[in-house]
Design brief:
With about 110 residues, the protein is of the alpha+beta class. It has a single domain (about 5-105), classed as Cullin, Chain C, Domain 2 (Ribosomal Protein S5, domain 2, 2-Layer Sandwich). The protein has helices at about 20-35, 65-75, 85-90, 95-100, and strands at about 50-55, 60-65. The N and C termini lie far apart (about 40 Å).
Length: about 110
């Protein structure tokens, strides 16, 4: 579908895509372009959502969040502490976007 058929999403944001997601994205692109060599894809991270399944006290829970929130949360996989500026630097997101996406998770 042509880009003009979609709402005007923010697409110019730079973001450091987590390696787990990048691997999935690369695999999908390889599959997609093999079957659609003349088409293009544009990833709209601001409209993306992720569901994480985990266990709390032995009970399975699904946690739904937007892509920016997942990217922020994912950096805590290997560390228990991270300052605000570290988050901004590691994600590639601007201060306001980081603030807006951390607030619902606190």
């Amino acid at each position: 579908m042509a880009k003009t058929n979609w709402p005007d999403f923010e697409t110019n944001r730079t973001i450091q895509v987590p390696k787990e997601i990048q691997a999935l994205k690369d695999g999908f692109e390889k599959f997609y372009f093999k079957n659609n060599p003349k088409k293009s894809l544009e990833w709209i991270y601001s409209a993306s959502e992720i569901i994480i399944t985990t266990k709390f006290s032995g009970v399975k829970k699904d946690i739904q969040m937007n892509f920016y929130q997942y990217t922020i949360l994912n950096f805590y996989e290997n560390t228990d502490e991270m300052g605000f500026e570290d988050i901004v630097t590691r994600t590639g997101l601007d201060d306001e976007t980081v603030r807006r996406n951390i607030a619902p998770m606190v």
